[in-house]
Recover the amino acids of this structure.
């Protein structure tokens, strides 16, 4: 799959490169790791939840450490026993101050993870709101898991024994969590009510089945999130290929742009050369339209990610020509003969500058290809579960 993806990019077929990823079934993504961060407040049962997900007892040497006191002080990974390349990461608790400050929160970096499970007990808190916003800002998705359902049911039964209904209590907890998540801008939030000590009760079986069913999309997202590291070597090879392919055009433009020509002609020729580069990299209008249609975005949205479309840099590049042109004008006006010295000065300034300008044009097209594909892949990555 990666080979097909790279070949399509090297040929400037950006829409095809996307199709190669989105059309693949789950077995093709088995080798793609899915890193799931389990996050929440201290004492919410994150470590016990991980043990329940892995089917481990607390006294198992492979299990996450649990206890009354805060036991998770650094991030630790736990591979899933049956889901290939699925790794659960136990995170230190958020929102618990130690001697006036949260010493763990400063070290907490969620950007390296593909998916999240926000674990909460009791009511929805500001810590959960902060996590939801942080995850959504990264364009990633999550499950919200409400733990300690057994304790909630026991408390409800003691408080209202005559009007107690397990179904009503669980439904109330779930609806309250969903309402809080919707207020944070989450569309169709997925909330699971569980007890870490009863993995076969409440929503725990549903959670396991949902994760299994979502695995294809989540692993595809994980692949897309790793796209820059996959794409960069391919684009470096592509830059070399483009330089070799259009070297004759570069030579002609180098001579033309390095000559003492009128100010607007270099800009026109630069735009022409840039169009050739865009065509080779698949950034021309028809290619962008095909890619936009494939990912359900507009060409305008994809073009907005490009940084080499403007002419400001080209104008800056030709500004030094004004020095040569000024000398030429002075030479012609002062001595009324062909401005030989001015031409030599202009050419001496223009030739090396023009060479680097054309090199920069090719590099800019390669960088824009990466930005456009990242924007297109972002459209897939941000589709909520």
């Amino acid at each position: 799959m990666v080979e097909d993806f790279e070949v399509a990019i090297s040929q400037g077929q950006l829409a095809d490169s996307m199709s190669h990823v989105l059309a693949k079934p789950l077995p093709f993504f088995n080798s793609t790791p899915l890193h799931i961060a389990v996050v929440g407040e201290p004492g919410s049962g994150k470590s016990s939840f991980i043990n329940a997900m892995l089917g481990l007892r607390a006294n198992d040497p492979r299990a996450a450490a649990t206890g009354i006191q805060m036991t998770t002080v650094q991030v630790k990974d736990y591979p899933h026993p049956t889901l290939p390349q699925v790794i659960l990461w136990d995170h230190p608790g958020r929102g618990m101050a130690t001697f006036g400050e949260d010493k763990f929160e400063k070290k907490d970096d969620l950007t390296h993870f593909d998916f999240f499970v926000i674990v909460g007990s009791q009511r929805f808190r500001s810590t959960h709101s902060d996590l939801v916003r942080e995850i959504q800002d990264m364009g990633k998705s999550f499950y919200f898991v409400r733990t300690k359902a057994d304790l909630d049911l026991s408390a409800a039964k003691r408080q209202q024994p005559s009007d107690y209904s397990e179904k009503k209590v669980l439904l109330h907890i779930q609806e309250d969590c969903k309402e809080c998540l919707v207020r944070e801008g989450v569309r169709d939030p997925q909330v699971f009510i569980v007890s870490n000590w009863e993995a076969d009760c409440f929503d725990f079986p549903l959670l396991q089945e949902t994760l299994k069913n979502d695995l294809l999309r989540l692993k595809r997202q994980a692949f897309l999130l790793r796209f820059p590291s996959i794409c960069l070597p391919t684009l470096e090879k592509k830059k070399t290929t483009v330089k070799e392919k259009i070297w004759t055009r570069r030579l002609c433009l180098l001579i033309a742009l390095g000559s003492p020509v009128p100010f607007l002609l270099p800009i026109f020729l630069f735009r022409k050369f840039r169009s050739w580069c865009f065509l080779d990299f698949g950034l021309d209008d028809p290619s962008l339209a095909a890619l936009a249609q494939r990912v359900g975005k507009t060409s305008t949205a994809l073009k907005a990610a490009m940084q080499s479309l403007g002419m400001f840099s080209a104008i800056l590049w030709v500004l030094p020509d004004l020095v040569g042109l000024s000398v030429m004008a002075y030479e012609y006006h002062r001595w009324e003969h062909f401005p030989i010295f001015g031409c030599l000065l202009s050419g001496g300034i223009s030739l090396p500058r023009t060479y680097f300008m054309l090199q920069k044009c090719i590099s800019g097209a390669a960088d824009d290809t990466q930005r456009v594909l990242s924007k297109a892949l972002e459209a897939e990555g941000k589709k909520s579960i």
Summary: Residues 340-381 form the longest helix (42 residues).
